Amino acid sequence: MLNILGRPASINVRKVLWLGHELGEPFVNEPWGDGDASRKLDAPAFAALNPNRMVPVIDDDGFVMWESNSILRYLAASRERTDLYPALPRERARVDQWIDWQSSDLNPAWRYPFMSLVRQASGYDDPRMLATSVERWSELMRVLDRQLQSTQAFVCGDTFTLADIPIGLSAHRWFSTPIAHPPLEGVSAYYERLSAIEGFRRYGRNGSP
């Protein structure tokens, strides 16, 4: 059975939980890193699975893997879910492009606003840094909006793919962070479209930013 290790409030863990739901097979979630003293990420048992001491980690019948986006790709490919992760190279590359964009561009842009306004973390209280980061985040959400205005459906076209999992969670974080949100009709329609999907309601639009 697939075992997903990591606290379910983590956005990266929620990616894998959502995909687990879409795969339609049983899985368990061990909430490592949720504050329980027996499940701290620096515990030797967890460090033996992931030397980076970060979640998520999966144990798929003895195959242990970390890095959330790599896990998504592995699970979809190993289950031959070509509806989620196409077999044709150009179609797969388009999915990979948006997954990597979320990780390398969009994710860093939201970090400062999220840590400042949602987590209220120490060291994230510079108003100039906050304004600059919000501006960059908004700029990238406009990139996404143009793509969604073009497809009028999901990130890569008419159908839901693996790319919609990290991007969908990103959209939820966008709407959940208390900043000024420019009107983005494509993103707003996409968010409501995702809300018709049970996996998103359970692991995306579930109260966790």
* CATH top level label of the largest domain: Mainly Alpha
Total strand segments? 4
If helices are DSSP runs of H or I spanning 4 or more residues, what is the number of helices?
Answer: 8
N-to-C order of helices and strands: EHEHEEHHHHHH
Helix content: 40-55%
Walk across the major sheet and give the strand order: 2-1-3-4
Percent of sequence in beta strands: 5-15%
Helix-strand makeup class: alpha+beta
Cα distance, first to last residue?
29 Å
Q: Main β-sheet, in a few words?
A: 4 strands, mixed
Which stretches of 5+ consecutive residues score pLDDT under 50?
Answer: none
CATH topology-level fold name of the largest domain: Glutathione S-transferase Yfyf (Class Pi), Chain A, domain 2
The overall pLDDT average reads 96
Approximate shape: globular
Q: Name the CATH architecture of the largest domain.
A: Up-down Bundle
**Overall structural domain count:** 2
InterPro entries: Glutathione-S-Trfase_C-like, Glutathione-S-Trfase_C_sf, Glutathione_S-Trfase, Glutathione_S-Trfase_N, Thioredoxin-like_sf
Pfam family, one: GST_N_2
Protein name: Glutathione S-transferase
Keywords: Transferase
